[in-house]
Amino acid sequence: MRLFNRFTLHTPESVELEFTLAGIGNRAYALLIDYIILGLIIVVFLLGALIFNSVLLETIAKLLGSTNRLELWLIAVQALIGFFIYVGYFVFYETVWSGKTPGKRYVKIRVIRDDGRPVRLQQSTLRALLRPFDDLFFIGVFLIVFNQQEKRLGDLVGGTLVIQEEQPMTTAALKVSTSAQSLANKLVLEADISSLLPEDFAVIREYLQRREGMIPNARNELSKQLATQVKEIIGWEKTQKKVDANVFLEAVYQAYQQQVDN
């Protein structure tokens, strides 16, 4: 089970770049926010179009006596404009805000090119044009789940990735509860903390640093999965009472730090 899907990119300059892929939960959350904003924009446009159509048709009818199917032409043109608004919303923001729409900015994810460079007009346009196909029958969800790089159709054609926006974080920012500190002391004595590799500790630390920005359901699920894996690694199942997964991970983090310091 991949808790943090890390992706290593090798650039033409022989530089290794490592990213954390955004994940379907964060992408869905960002898209929901974007669709709410976009929906409000389109509603305002439609109301304006209705008023404009009514005034224009009434004026032409008084002057010429007939609109000659003008209403159908207006609807067709305005439907086309509505589609341009839909596509333009994603293209504009992803191009101007370095791969972030308002929804992505809130969730702290962004779009980049496969080579690690910022997304440009061409890639953003391809992603936006193919978004309706991705949304149709959840094709995009299916592709993201079964694609190692979590790419929907727009990403595959546009050559893009959606990643977590890296935030500068320090060890001091981590909050370890009193109960976690008490449990950490017990883990040092009873568990095989030395079995944790530096890479394992890095995953625990990354989760603890990122958890406040996660959706509650996603945070709970990830903490339980990660706690189960860590218990197997350190060979510790001695819980007389049910311990919250987050408290346990904090305790493991603290126990590892104590062991390193000693």
What is the strand and helix layout of this fold?
Elements (H helix, E strand, L loop, with lengths): L5 E5 L5 E5 L3 H41 L5 H27 L5 H6 L1 E5 L7 H15 L3 H8 L6 H6 L1 E5 L13 H13 L7 H13 L5 H19 L10 H17 L1
Antiparallel strand pairs: 1-2, 3-4
Describe the fold and architecture.
- α1 (24-64) runs antiparallel to α2 (70-96).
- This protein is elongated.
- With 262 residues, the chain is mostly helical.
- It has a two-stranded antiparallel ribbon with strand order 1-2. The chain has a two-stranded antiparallel ribbon with strand order 3-4.
- The protein has helices at residues 24-64, 70-96, 102-107, 121-135, 139-146, 153-158, 178-190, 198-210, 216-234, 245-261, and strands at 6-10, 16-20, 109-113, 160-164.
- Mean pLDDT is 84; it is low at 168-172.
- β1 and β2 form a beta hairpin.
Give a brief rundown of this model:
The protein has 262 residues and is mainly alpha-helical. It has ten helices and four strands, in the order ββαααβαααβαααα.
- Major β-sheet annotation: 2 strands, antiparallel
Distance between the termini: 32 Å
> Averaging pLDDT over every residue, what do you get?
84
H and E string? EEHHHEHHHEHHHH
Q: Count of helical segments?
A: 10
Number of strands: 4
Q: What structural class do the secondary elements suggest?
A: mainly alpha
The radius of gyration computed from the alpha-carbon positions, rounded to a whole number of angstroms, is 25 Å
The coarse overall form would be elongated
**Strand content bin:** 5-15%
Q: Order of strands across the widest beta sheet?
A: 1-2
Helical proportion, percent range: 55-70%
**Could you list the spans in which at least 5 consecutive residues all have pLDDT below 50?**
168-172
